[in-house]
Amino acid sequence: MIYLVEDDPSIRKLVSYALSGAGYEVSSFESGEEMKAKGGKTKPELYLLDIMLPGLSGLEILSEIRSDAALRDIPVIMLTAKGTEYDKILGLDSGADDYIAKPFGMMELLARIKAVLRRTERQKQKDDLTWGKISISPSSHTVRVAGSKAELTLKEFNLLLYLMENEGIVLDRDSILNTVWGYSFDGENRTVDVHVRHLREKLGDEGQRIETVKGVGYRFRGHDE
Q1: How far is CA 74 from CA 43, 117, 152, 218, in A?
Q2: Beta partners for 52?
Q3: 3-class DSSP assignment, residue 217
């Protein structure tokens, strides 16, 4: 099931038709309020959210999804008429998995949806990892530091997983952007640095395992010296 929240009836109808034709079950809503009222307790596989909506904006809906323990792991793709680099960064920094600007082709949208769902499924199949006092479980989407659960956002979790999977390897910011966010921002690396800073804070003393390699990027140090 895919939840589509789009206030433009023509776009809503077109996207719903394309998704249904591709074999997806879809429920469409013209606002976040309608989705809450009519969506019930159904847990979708993916959200498609327009940013500019009456009432709750797409970013506000995204924030609510990411703060709900039962929903935070569900992938979100933002749909918007805005196409500036700033808006991409804002949406993705807020926890979106992908971003597609209007007008867009249905084939492109379907390809993005398939890619996001594939990434989500691969993550669920990965083995647990432990380095030092940090343990990460992709299947249960949990992180524990010295036995205590760490509350991470989806992007923080994906960032930590990517770093731990590549323990000891220096990862440049472009590689991190492309892998974790699925985007390259033409040299805009602020979003990576912000997420690394937040991640270090949440990991406490173990956050020092994420090392900055000046002029390049970051490296996760699993072995104690």
Answers
A1: 9, 9, 14, 27
A2: none
A3: strand
